[in-house]
């Protein structure tokens, strides 16, 4: 794949796969960031643009379709299947639909983290595309109340349900990288909820999760096997490893070692604490609503430490 072919692929991606949200002038501005500090300017730019052809970008329409699939495949269908088992494998759709509606009425969907963060933001679209009542959506402070109880003579804070008819809480996020963020937000709260509410059903669902992050969420202190992702990102999605699926069967001139040096050099100048993404994430992944910090910073950094044009913008959190 020579430079002309790389350009042709990127123009096609811009027009068709990226829904024109990333246009050619935008790509040219990003390419100009690479100024020959590691290899020649031409070589660095060829590597950068080739990496861009392997970037997984999900535009607005793709995200909406994934939200439909997540609800259908990981919430509705399992409950319908359970209703069939509970009714002697009936195929009577009236019975199954009534049973599902009963289960849905006992459910609340909750965003992970602050209401202004990406997970909670996507719940709005999740509700719309799946035609769900807004009464099914809430947050922890609305659904639970703190009580101090004595356990073995020790004062302990627990979170009791405000609504006894709700017994299933589904936590929602767009992406789980290392699993650290979700753990920080939820570990203590889940413990307090379980202490006060025996047999409560706590679940987690997301669009994307790394294998390591999903394993962490499925440990007993968190969701104990009830965390699911529409797409699981295994180790082959770490783009700078030898078994990277992003750079499988590359052109003859491509060298993964050179790609790593270019990404590491500029990444360290942009984000000294995470030159290859948060927790060394090494993802090539972005969404229309945001780009996760697990992705290589050379794609999303906006130049706080040195002049830099992002190609897939990240809306960073301000704490």
Produce the secondary structure layout.
Layout: H1 3-17, H2 24-31, H3 41-53, E1 56-58, H4 60-86, H5 93-105, E2 107-111, H6 118-129, E3 137-138, H7 140-143, E4 144-151, E5 154-161, E6 168-176, H8 180-196, E7 201-210, H9 211-217, E8 227-233, H10 256-270, E9 285-287, H11 297-300
Parallel strand pairs: 1-9, 2-3, 2-6, 6-7, 7-8
Antiparallel strand pairs: 4-5
Helix pairs in contact: 1-3, 4-5
What does this structure look like?
- It is a single chain.
- By secondary structure, the chain is α/β, with parallel strands linked by helices.
- It has a 5-stranded parallel beta sheet, with helices on both faces. It has a two-stranded parallel ribbon with strand order 1-9.
- Helix 1 packs parallel to helix 3 and helix 4 packs across helix 5.
- The longest helix is centred in the first third of the chain and has 27 residues.
- The protein is elongated and about 65 Å long.
- The mean pLDDT is 92.
Can you give the helix content as a percent range?
40-55%
Q: Using the alpha-carbon principal axes, give the shape.
A: elongated
Strand content: 15-25%
What structural category do the secondary elements indicate?
Answer: alpha/beta
Number of helices: 11
From the structure above, extract its key features.
single chain; 319 residues; alpha/beta; 5-stranded parallel β-sheet; two-stranded parallel sheet; 11 helices; 17% strand
């Amino acid at each position: 794949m020579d430079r002309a072919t790389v350009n042709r692929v990127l123009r096609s991606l811009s027009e068709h796969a990226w829904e024109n949200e990333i246009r050619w002038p935008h790509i040219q501005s990003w390419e100009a960031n690479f100024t020959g500090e590691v290899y020649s300017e031409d070589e660095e730019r060829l590597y950068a643009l080739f990496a861009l052809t392997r970037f997984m970008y999900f535009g607005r329409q793709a995200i909406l379709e994934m939200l439909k699939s997540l609800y259908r495949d990981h919430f509705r269908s399992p409950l319908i299947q359970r209703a069939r088992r509970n009714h002697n494998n009936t195929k009577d759709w009236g019975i199954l639909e009534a049973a599902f509606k009963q289960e849905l009425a006992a459910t609340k969907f909750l965003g992970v983290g602050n209401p202004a963060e990406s997970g909670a933001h996507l719940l709005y679209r999740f509700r719309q595309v799946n035609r769900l009542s807004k009464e099914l959506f809430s947050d922890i402070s609305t659904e639970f109340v703190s009580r101090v109880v004595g356990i073995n003579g020790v004062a302990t804070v627990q979170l009791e349900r405000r609504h006894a008819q709700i017994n299933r809480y589904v936590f929602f996020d767009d992406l789980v990288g290392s699993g650290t963020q979700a753990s920080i937000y939820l570990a203590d709260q889940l413990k307090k909820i379980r202490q006060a509410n025996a047999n409560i059903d706590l679940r987690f669902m997301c669009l994307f999760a790394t294998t390591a992050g999903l394993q962490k969420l499925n440990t007993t202190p968190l969701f104990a096997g009830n965390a699911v992702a529409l797409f699981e990102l295994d180790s082959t999605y770490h783009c700078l490893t030898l078994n990277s699926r992003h750079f499988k069967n590359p052109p003859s001139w491509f060298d993964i070692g050179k790609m790593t040096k270019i990404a590491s050099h500029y990444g360290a100048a942009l984000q000294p604490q995470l030159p290859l993404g948060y927790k060394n994430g090494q993802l090539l992944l972005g969404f229309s609503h945001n780009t996760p910090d697990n992705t290589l910073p050379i794609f999303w950094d906006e130049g706080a430490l040195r002049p830099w044009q992002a190609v897939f913008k990240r809306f960073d959190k301000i704490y």
